[in-house]
Amino acid sequence: MPHTPAHAAATAPAIEADALSVRIRRRPILHELGFTVPAGRVTGLLGPSGSGKSTLMRSIVGVQKLWRGSLTVLGRPAGSAPLRHVIGYMTQEPSVYRDLTVLDNVKYFGALHGKSAAEARAAVAAVGLADLARRRAADLSGGQFSRVSLACALVGEPQLLVLDEPTVGLDPVLRVDLWDRFRALADSGATLLVSSHVMEEAARCDSLLLLREGRLLGQLTPDALRGRGGSSDLEQAFLGIIRADLDRQAAGLPVPAREHAA
Question: Where do the structural domains in the chain lie, given as residue ranges?
Answer without folding.
Answer: 1-86+159-262, 91-157
